[in-house]
Write a structure and sequence with these properties.
668 residues, alpha/beta, disordered N terminus
């Protein structure tokens, strides 16, 4: 078994069940089969982590369909990425196993093609299930996510055990493939159903894939977060095995998997328990959320269980409990507590979209583990101590980052409850507060400007009528209203956003302000415009207060023109909350406004116009969109020109039936 059991440590996502399945192989056909099973399993799980880690946190922190980073598009792009990684990894694994001349006919050597197939199937199936769990969690369906994980990890091993019982000598790898088929079938069923439903809304599978592909490379660097930790764990276990005491290495490997179970069980039970704790609406940017409290409590409870049952499990599989002391097992379980606290830190960093910090912490973990492990020696106890030390250092640094993020000065927003610093950062980075996809933004903004201009023109406003652009952002609509001969005040609570607006030019009959008291001083207004502003107010009471403030500034007979996100399943996210049509109507009618009309609008990703489909499919547009990531001025200029020309010719503002975006006009 020399040198092979080190791979046990990189079976990060599957936790205990694959290890027990591997031990079943060992009990039936000998330890070498177990060794090679663990090696191949490690490759599959490493691919799974690589395929999913850059998406799961993004899905959990994603916005509603108004933002391109919504759970559906991230999920589909993750599926595509998982398929690519799994296929390439399967080919690699098939060629990486030893050939038959050097391993005396071992089962894994005889069938490298089947080895590669199993790795690819296992990786893709697990990846899809992990992504689906993230989507369910993002939709606050934690119980379903827990049940899905239990089913996905239980079915394969039941089938695999049956296959081994029927034919344990000749077709072990085929039995492993058979054991994987249920999880793949479940994954394929979900992904096909999910893709079909999304394609119905977008018009075709091709459109769905085209919208999702740009998400694939965008967060690739976050793969460091999982990949480096997996590598660090494998390196730590190789240190234990370096002394050639294979019995101790085997015992420690199983103890290490018990440590992994301490992380896995909270994930399953937490999904079942958290809905009962009132997770809905929990602000994950501060405090200990119910989900983390549940994880931490279950992790603490697992300490005693492992201390009681750990040695018995070791003996059950013929491994000597004396090779790994109670103290070492306890140390590994203490690491579970620190890992749970790290989960709290990562939860709060993800809520603040500090993904670079998360990736950086994984590098800190790796370096600390390597240094601590090499300094203390190669015993099981020293490696367990190094793991605890690594989690502790990472935890302290993560908490410092969170505290600094909380201490960053933010300007209270009277227009919405979002963090003003978030919008300031977006304005500085992109030059606006709209879509981060520049190809979408320039087209969508041009089309919305034309839509608002047409709508306002139908209201019959007198020349120099006073208007308020509430939540004006960088001032595109303010300047458009000014060009129509209206006297406009553009208000936004972020001074950085207003600085960008000033930098883009101000007309003679327009001005910008960040002072909420200026709204009353310059009123009353014949027209008030709010383009995707109220959807950023997450709390209903705050929404009512903001509407009342706007209504008080309106002139009698004045109009309020709105564009807002509307969704039947209105999830609350960090910055956007879509509401149903009825909820929007109730909110404005309760403030004494009279409803004029509501129309469903196109959505560039969910319900695109034919012209937008043709525009976004142009190779030049795709190339320029990529070039804008590198801040190339000419690329942005050309893309804006192409988008504006295409949008000016687009007359398909409105769509039939329900839509993710609506235009409303109200009168006081």
């Amino acid at each position: 078994m020399q040198g092979a059991l080190i791979f046990v440590g990189s079976t990060g996502l599957a936790k205990l069940l694959p290890l027990l399945f591997g031990l079943l192989l060992a009990s039936l056909v000998g330890s070498h089969s177990y060794v090679h099973f663990v090696e191949i399993l490690a490759q599959a799980n490493f691919l799974t982590a690589l395929a999913t880690v850059s998406y799961t946190q993004m899905i959990l922190a994603s916005n509603t369909p108004e933002d391109p980073r919504n759970p559906q598009h991230l999920a589909v792009s993750a599926l595509v990425f998982a398929a690519i990684v799994s296929a390439l990894g399967g080919l690699w694994a098939g060629h990486a196993v030893p050939d038959a001349t050097s391993c005396n006919g071992n089962w894994a050597c005889r069938v490298p093609a089947q080895t590669g197939l199993w790795v690819a199937l296992y990786s893709f199936g697990n990846s899809v299930l992990m992504v689906q769990m993230s989507v369910l969690n993002a939709q606050l369906k934690g119980a379903r996510a827990g049940i899905l994980l239990l089913c996905g990890l239980s079915l394969p091993y039941a089938v695999g055990a049956l296959g081994l019982a029927l034919n344990a000598d000749d077709k072990l790898l085929l039995s492993a493939i058979a054991a994987t088929l249920p999880i793949v079938a479940l994954a394929v069923y979900w992904s096909a159903n999910h893709t079909y439903l999304r394609a119905l809304r977008l018009g075709s599978v091709r459109t769905l894939v085209a919208r999702s592909l740009p998400r694939i490379p965008e967060y690739g660097y976050i793969m460091l977060f999982s990949a480096l930790i997996l590598y660090a764990h494998a390196h730590a276990l190789s240190a234990v095995n370096a002394a050639n005491d294979h019995a101790a290495a085997a015992a420690f490997s199983l103890g290490y998997q018990l440590f992994a179970v301490g992380l896995f069980v909270p994930g399953v039970l937490g999904n079942l328990v958290v809905p009962l704790l009132g997770r809905r609406g929990q602000d994950t940017t501060k405090g200990v959320g119910p989900i983390t409290a549940a994880y931490l409590g279950i992790s603490l409870a697992s300490l005693g269980l492992v201390q009681v049952f750990g040695p018995h499990i070791l003996s059950w599989y013929g491994l000597e409990p004396s090779k790994v002391s109670h103290g070492t097992l306890l140390t590994l379980q203490v690491a579970v507590v620190f890992a749970s606290l790290n989960a709290l830190v990562n939860q709060r960093l993800a809520a603040r979209r500090r993904y670079g910090a998360m990736a950086g912490l994984s590098i800190v973990y790796l370096v600390t583990l390597l240094l601590a492990g090499n300094f203390n020696g190669h015993s099981a106890a020293s490696v367990a101590d190094a793991i605890v030390a690594s989690y502790l250092v990472t935890l302290m640094m993560g908490m410092a980052i969170v505290r600094r993020s909380q201490a960053a000065p933010t300007k209270p927003s009277a227009a919405h409850e979002s963090d003003a610093a978030y919008w300031s950062t977006r304005a500085r980075r992109y030059g606006h507060t709209g879509w981060t996809n520049q190809a979408i933004y320039h087209y969508d903004q041009t089309l919305r400007l034309k839509l608002v201009k047409t709508t306002v023109g139908q209201l019959g406003l007198p020349a120099n009528a006073r208007c308020l652009d509430y939540g004006c952002g960088t001032g595109d609509f303010t300047r458009m209203l000014s060009a129509m001969g209206l006297n406009v005040l553009g208000y936004d609570p972020s001074s950085a956003v207003i600085d960008v607006a000033h930098g883009q030019g101000v007309a003679r009959n327009a001005r910008f302000t960040t002072r909420i008291e200026d709204l009353t001083a310059h009123g009353p207004y014949r027209l008030t415009l709010a383009v995707t502003v109220f959807q950023h107010i997450l709390d209903d009471a705050s929404l009512h207060s903001a509407i009342e403030r706007v209504v008080q500034c309106m002139d009698d007979g004045g109009h309020l023109v709105l564009i807002e996100s509307c969704t039947q399943a209105a999830p609350q996210s960090a910055h956007v909350r879509g509401r149903t049509v009825e909820a929007w109507h109730d909110a404005f009618a309760s403030s004494g406004l009279h409803h004029c009309f509501t129309k469903s609008l196109y959505h560039p990703t969910l319900q695109p116009t034919p012209s937008f489909r043709a525009y976004s499919a142009r190779p030049l547009v795709r190339a320029l969109r990529v070039a804008t990531h590198f801040k190339l001025p000419l690329a942005t200029k050309w893309l804006r020109k192409i988008a504006s020309t295409a949008a000016e010719a687009d007359q398909d503002f409105f769509v039939e039936g329900n839509s993710a975006v609506i235009l409303m006009v109200w009168r006081k």
